[in-house]
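Memo to structure team: turn this sequence into structure tokens by end of day. - J.P.
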Amino acid sequence: MAKKIHFISNSIVQEINNPDNVSILELDKEEIISLFKANGILLFRGFDVDVDIFKEFTSILSIDFINYAGGAFSRRVINGDETLLSVNDFKSEIKLHGEMYYQQNIPLMLWFFCANPPLEDGETTVCDGRQFFNEISSSTKELFSKKKLKFNVRISQEDWQKKYQTDDLNQLEEMCRKNNTHLTVNEDQSILLEYISPAIIPSRCGKYQVFINSLLPTKQLNPKILNFEDDSEIPEEVVSELNEIAEKITTEISWQKGDILMIDNTRILHGRRSFADDQRDIYIRLCSPAFSF
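Reply from structure team:
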């Protein structure tokens, strides 16, 4: 592989550079896979990449691209391709999280592409869920071992039809069934969704415990919808502990035009710093790896 690899910020992110000015499509697939399995996150920088090349490159290494039906944020579809999406439609900070961990069926892999970086700020934040688990206090680990998280979301008819990209209740019921989500339909056709998930999961290889979930951004943006499965509140001191750990072990990625970020969504948490300008344009693809990991 024509590359120069080094750690950025003395952290988990391995950066693959392009000193020999080769096409990203010429990189050695097996070496990328090996690095990804070892690190869970790779940053490709300095390659001549546009949206079409990004789609081609990600399709070499991934399968089962999905749209964002059921997703929490509003995303723009890019160039008419429902598997190529903007990251979201607001500029505030988003705390570290695993993608779509408020439902059972998550994308195993994430790809980000920087079509245009912000003028300043707006860094993407990442950390390793294995390290996060190791930093958590024994008492909090014990609490999460005893109590799972419960998301309770009320959605109007208009909003669930937009969120799930359908106006068919039968389709909605099937989607909820596949995601192990309890659905209640009210007389006015608004709905109540209830989903229970662990805060800590075993790694895919079974050797590690991983703290990865949607707890921190939910408590940040919509705290009332998240409690423990017995409906008790998650203690503020626990949320504060988790936020302190997140800041301690976070790596910030300052985007450059054409950057591609490859993330293991079963291990690596991601988020975003706030920004103020209208230049930032980052795209995402949600999928599974085209290899075992």
